[in-house]
Design a protein that fits this description.
Elements: E1 2-8, E2 11-19, E3 25-35, H1 40-53, H2 68-78, H3 85-105, H4 114-127, H5 142-161, H6 179-182, H7 192-202, H8 208-217, H9 221-225, E4 232-233, E5 238-241, E6 244-247, E7 251-254, E8 264-267, H10 270-290, H11 311-324, H12 336-347, H13 352-359, H14 366-391
Helix pairs in contact: 2-3, 2-5, 3-5, 8-12, 12-14
């Protein structure tokens, strides 16, 4: 049994987690009757006393009683009160793959072996996609399966702590690297030469402005949708990235960015300033036109009625543009605009450190380094071609 203190309506509550006789993980709340202010030590003492009183009385399920798919499902449900909604939903998406696979295998906790975990990773890398389009790889990416591994290892660590199993069979098993994932696709961002063409095909598209801003600043999708008017100062010509909007099942606005390096300030270039002023003018017109039917919000990128765009809408709309156009690579996706920003900065001779600051990458970001190396390699090939032409005899 484990426990923690939570504050609800100004009072301390004890939250305890345990397993019942059927192996199901349970969570119970019990009020201490103590107000939050000045009573933390007393509340901690009450929690310790409660846990002590249950010592030896908790009904433990034996490993033979529980299948692995049941255990990891119950474990995940038990974490719901302690995780942000979007984080929990993200884990839930990965959990479906794990549960569906092991439900068919019917492997009990006591029988789970390292080889079972290894076979699971191999299966997902080869056949894990639930929706497969024409000419598409049927397996999940290495990165996605590594997210599965994180869940499996954490769940089994919990089982070891609760003495359900003696050792974690997944701890030493790594996810093999797919050959396809070792290469960075040649066409996963837009080159400098393609930018003007990309801008031309955007003309008239309702998302023209948001796509241009994402490319210009190298924003994440969540950062672009999280832009609010209070983050744009037209007097000082400054834009601040400080909020994000994300969605799995639920649309969630977060009052902080992904990490400290993601919080950053930008200058408003004349062209970018013009884009934002046009959006603001259009929103004012829509507000007057719709009156009470207008949804008041401070978001920059919205529908005509003031509702913010869904993250999925941006992603799907961008993909439609790519699919319809024969001159753009089918490998492009919305995140390619962020990569394109990095590649353009590399071409302009900016240092890795400057680029990382501009796009909000941490200093040890592999992404920046990979794109940087890739663009530089292309430059080398171009130089080699130029030199070869010098040696050609007319």
């Amino acid at each position: 049994m484990t426990g923690s203190l939570q504050v609800k309506r100004g009072y301390y509550h004890m939250v305890v987690q345990f397993y019942d006789e059927n192996g199901k993980r349970k969570t119970k709340w019990r009020s201490t009757g103590l107000k939050e202010k000045g009573n933390k030590r007393k509340a901690e003492q009450m929690l310790s006393a409660l846990l002590e009183s249950y010592k030896g009385k908790e009904k433990r399920c034996t490993s033979a009683e529980v299948y692995f798919d049941q255990y990891i499902t119950q474990w995940h449900e038990g974490r719901k009160p302690y995780l942000e909604v979007i984080t929990w939903e993200g884990y839930s998406y990965h959990l479906k793959h794990i549960v569906n696979y092991f439900r068919d295998k019917k492997i009990k906790m006591i029988d789970l072996k390292a080889n079972d975990i290894k076979e699971y990773y191999k299966y997902q890398l080869a056949y894990g996609r639930t929706v497969v389009r024409k000419n598409e790889d049927t397996g999940l990416s290495t990165r996605t399966v590594k997210s599965h591994r994180l869940l499996i290892v954490e769940a089994l660590n919990d089982a070891v702590e609760r003495e359900i199993i003696n050792v974690n069979p997944a701890k030493s098993i790594k996810v093999p690297q797919k050959v396809a994932d070792k290469k960075l696709d040649d066409d996963d961002f837009i080159d400098a030469e393609e930018i003007s063409y990309f801008f031309r095909i955007l003309i008239g598209n309702r998302l023209e402005s948001v796509f241009k801003i994402i490319l210009y600043y190298g924003l994440r999708r969540s950062e672009a949708l999280g832009l609010t008017w209070d983050a744009i100062n037209f007097d000082t010509n400054q834009l601040i990235i400080k909020r994000t909007v994300v969605k799995m099942k639920t649309l969630v606005a977060k009052e902080r960015t992904k990490n400290d390096s993601s919080f950053r300030a930008y200058p408003l270039h004349t062209e970018v300033r013009t884009i934002f002023l046009k959006i603001k003018e259009q929103q004012e017109w829509n507000r007057k036109l719709l009156g009470r039917d207008y949804n008041e919000s401070d978001y920059v990128f919205t529908w005509e009625d003031g509702r913010p765009y869904s993250p999925d809408y941006l992603t799907k709309s961008f993909k439609k543009i790519v699919v319809r156009d024969d001159l753009l690579s089918s490998k492009l996706n919305l995140h390619s605009l962020r990569k394109s920003c990095i590649s353009l900065l590399v071409k302009k001779g900016r240092s890795i450190k400057d680029i990382q600051k501009w796009v909000g990458h941490s200093e040890n970001s592999d992404v920046t380094l990979k794109i940087y190396a890739k663009v530089k390699e292309k430059d080398k090939l171009s130089i080699a071609q130029d030199m070869a032409e010098c040696f050609q005899v007319s």
